[in-house]
Amino acid sequence: MNQALKKECEINQGFYRFINEEVLPLTGLNSATFWHDLTALVEDLAPENRALLRTRQQLQDQIDQWHLANPQFDMESYQAFLREINYLVDEPAPFTITTENVDQEIAELAGPQLVVPVMNARFALNAANARWGSLYDALYGSDAIPSDSGLAPCRKYNPARGKHVIDFAKDFLDQVCPLEKGSHHDVASYTVYFQHLLAYFPDGSESGLVSPCQFVAFANSKADPSSIVLKNNGLHIEVVIDRQGFIGQHDLSGIDDIKVEAALSTIMDLEDSIAAVDASDKIAAYRNWMGLIQGNLTAEFDKNGHTMERHLNPDKIFNCKNGDEYRLHGRSLLLVRNVGHLMDTELMQDAQGNFAPEGIIDAVVTSMIGMLDLQHTHDMDMSKRDIHNSRTGSIYIVKPKMHGPEEVAFTCRLFGRVEDMLGLARNTIKLGIMDEERRTTVNLKACIYEAKERVFFINTGFLDRTGDEIHTSMEAGPFLPKNEIKQQVWIQAYENANVDAGLTCGFPGRAQIGKGMWAMPDEMASMLTAKIEHPRSGASTAWVPSPTAAVLHALHYHQVNVNDVQQQLKGRAATPLSKVLTVPLMAAPEKLTNEQIENELANNIQGILGYVVRWVEMGVGCSKVPDINNIGLMEDRATLRISSQHIANWLKHGVCTPQQVEAVMDRMAQQVDQQNAGLAGYRNMSPNSEQSLAFKAARALIFEGEQQPSGYTEPLLHQYRQLAKQAG
Ligand SMILES: CC(=O)SCCNC(=O)CCNC(=O)[C@H](O)C(C)(C)COP(=O)(O)OP(=O)(O)OC[C@H]1O[C@@H](n2cnc3c(N)ncnc32)[C@H](O)[C@@H]1OP(=O)(O)O
Ligand SMILES: O=CC(=O)O
Ligand SMILES: [Mg+2]
């Protein structure tokens, strides 16, 4: 049953109640005015939103036609054509962004950014609390410390493994906060002498830090500190000392743990990592966002036979070395990712029966909830309030999947209208631009220009970007195997051009330059080796999939000073557009062996089925799915977009046949069923795959992939998930 608002517009009743009963009373906004304004907003902006989507399709049709008419690709004529159709626009004259009131986690500090599905309260709380994490736990519990030669973690503590953990962590201290003389390994005790940290060795000798100012605070007494807080590259390290502690009792200096400042910011995701297909799903997601902002979200769950309750951590309070209080934010700075411009939502319907653009409703609701934090900020003495988010009065919205500057301009107009509706000062709502569609990449400066007063990040969402790479050039020819696409010139050019754009547009000090997700959540040793390249490339943040990854990736920002790197990079030669536009096609598809083709299909299809079955049948928007080498991969809608577009491309160009794909799908359905055996709520796809909604969804994603708007997966996922919900 719907709530008739004006006679030409209907609001979903659950949504109406949620806003009226749970949100509006906290905002001081008038209900009648709010609904009137929301209706007007949707009436005004929905047609524009739809027009932007038509433009996407028109451009895609023109690009398809061009490739068909130009089988011999010529870069010069290609670029001329892209300009002619307005896919490529003129670069704006040099400018710098003017974004103000940005929290220091975004503007000044460099460190990991965690992403989490907001609908999972247990994970979302964990993510918000992942501002701080135990280095000992992250090392002990991951493959960062190898498991061979008696080092495997076991049910009881393995002291041999523990020794490697402690050695690694103290090596790290020696590296980033070295002592003037000697090593942290050999320290017998730490004390604070006036404003200095002193380390004493067993022979009675002592040493200070090479950089004494790295010592900033302590807990308990100077003579017998229970914590020592160090600071390097703006990030804190807490050395916890407890001579009675589980680890500390066996440690020469009594160090019980080393905690690091890890996820400086966290994206609460309403987009690609969640499955929200109807009003009740959306309300659940909004409610969690509200609980996080208000500070009262809790989650009760069973872990290892114990019932646990999780809530948000308070701030951390220490003694400053000069005697004052030293207060550190206890939680990640929370950002919220809205959906893009594509999908509509049943939360609201116009007179013609059209659902409202979901991105418009997300902007209004997530901002209105974000506003509760700002009201608290103004109303309350900050030192008395434990849970708050922005200390500069900003709301941070990450907007995904925008195509080019006119879509960014539209988002900014939308945010401006929302600010007017909510009575917020202009540019309170900050915009994070995902550089993850090709039309945004090639016009990035023009995109930033449109948002120059409110942009707070650009981030290379290379997963969606790869999907869009395939879809945009679907007609150009067959693409390389998925892993080889990553090695081609276009991607490095895209990554470099993104950093360069951020630097030339004045991001340092105002906004983040971000890099993409580490999509192998269990491969922490590899991450420690590979992801240091992100700060080295000039990025001030990069995405991680879990708190453990956040802790370990944080080490990189101690090892690399991003400010210095950014200074060095300023003024490097611009990346040629031709490199960004070089499509990663296969030169000689006929050289692929049948085995290579089968392997590629098997890998893609295992990922697709493994992800889609949980999405459609169980409403799980982000999963860890083993690939054919049994490495667990983070799969979300963006990785699904790549896999499904890749097979669609190979089908189109005859690299594989539909029969081959069907056969691999049947084989992989059995495999995925086996992988999920015993999982509560799981429904097998085989042997009656024709009755499985998940299997049908996966088939549609592949065989109808070419026709999907920009190759996106959400229209089909939503359709099949809704059917699964109806089927109960
Ligand atoms: C292309 C893009 O758009 S990328 C952005 C979207 N992707 C994401 O947001 C990825 C977020 N990550 C995740 O959802 C998960 O890590 C997955 C699905 C990849 C793996 O989940 P699982 O298989 O359940 O992880 P695993 O069993 O190893 O670990 C679970 C533990 O880690 C925690 N955890 C895992 N990921 C996260 C996270 N992102 N935030 C907070 N906590 C997390 C869980 O809370 C849980 O700990 P608990 O028992 O104390 O609650
Ligand atoms: O959103 C991130 C991506 O890689 O896509
Ligand atoms: Mg993305």
- Which molecules are bound in this entry? acetyl coenzyme *A, ligand LL5AMS7Z, magnesium ion
Order of strands in the sheet with the most strands? 3-12-17-20-21-22-23-24
CATH architecture of the largest domain: Alpha-Beta Barrel
Going by CATH, what is the homologous superfamily of the largest domain? Malate synthase, domain 3
Largest sheet entry:
8 strands, parallel, barrel
- Helical segment count: 25
Please, could you describe this protein's structure?
- The chain is of the alpha/beta class and 728 residues long.
- It folds into 3 domains: 79-130 and 264-580, TIM Barrel (Alpha-Beta Barrel); 134-261, Malate synthase G - maily-beta sub-domain (Beta Complex), CATH 2.170.170.11; 589-726, Up-down Bundle (Malate Synthase G, Chain: A, Domain 4).
- The chain is built from 25 helices and 26 strands.
- It has an 8-stranded parallel β-barrel, surrounded by 5 helices.
- Mean pLDDT is 96; it is low at 378-384.
- The structure holds acetyl coenzyme *A, the ligand O=CC(=O)O and magnesium ion.
Structural key phrases:
8-stranded parallel barrel, alpha/beta, 3 domains, binds magnesium ion, 26 strands, Malate Synthase G, Chain: A, Domain 4, 728 residues, 25 helices
